[in-house]
Amino acid sequence: MLGSIATSARQYFSLVGTVSPRYLALAFLTYYVSVLLYGIRWKLVLNGVGRDAPLGELVKAILASIFINNVTPMSRSGGELLRMAWVSRRAMVPTGVSAVSIVYERILETVPVFVLFLAGMTYFSSEEPIPFVLLGVTGIFLIWVKWDSFVRLSLHLFKAPVSPEEIERIASLKDMHGLNVAAIILSSVVWLLDVLRLKLITLAFGLNLAWSFIAVISIANLFFGLLAFTPGGVGIIEGGLIGTLTYFGIPTALAVSITLLERFVSYVVSSLVGLVVLLTSGGVEIWKALKSQ
């Protein structure tokens, strides 16, 4: 047993030594471009509810929230609350309005997530994709028809003080077609950048996998993250991604190396950057005030 562990360790370190710095740098770039796009999308939604905030503050709030998400149990358990408090204190946006903007972002994200889900289902299923397409269209249609109920349920889950006027404001966002299209496009680009990042990480090891395969792996990674209940999904995401890669024939040592490098970019470094932002931008005081409420 010790011999096999030592062999695996040697294989892993030999693979790490072959990583291409150029592809690794591009993987980092795609991650932080995604953060910038999240900030732009958030700014657009805030504008839609009649509020404005500096893009720099929104990006700082997102970076700090990534750190909080990575150290607290359950996906987005504390990070979204920090974002609400941050924009409320730094841009004088009422808490209810900031909650509205974040909930609306999540609602708009359902469109690209549905598309990814359908892509994954059709890839794994030997049946015709029509039932899955109908399922996705039905889901989006129900959200759209029952928009007010969906908004109220989402705000209830956030437990944010939202006035009837603010609820009406987010309900009216449904009719702002330009905002919806722009936000959905930004959300879709972010998910495409996630796929691109995984592609770049595999290329860093000299592995040129098909885009369709990378997309399926990215979808699996997304759902592992959604199901994870540990801080930052530690253990669950890594185990799931390694298992998925090896299931599709990637050698174990290479699957481990790809997973650890991806998590180094999306978890380790992002946590360190978020911590620095939290410590240097007054985020600690915001977080302490939030916890004391």
TrEMBL record:
Its main location: membrane. Keywords: Cell membrane, Membrane, Transmembrane, Transmembrane helix. It is found in: Cell membrane. It is a multi-pass membrane protein. GO terms for cellular component: plasma membrane. The chain crosses the membrane at residues 23-40, 107-124, 130-147, 179-198, 210-229, 241-261, 267-287. The keyword DNA damage does not apply. InterPro entries: L-PG_synthase/AglD. It holds the Pfam family LPG_synthase_TM. Belongs to the UPF0104 family. This is Flippase-like domain-containing protein. The lineage of its organism: Archaea, Methanobacteriati, Methanobacteriota, Thermococci, Thermococcales.
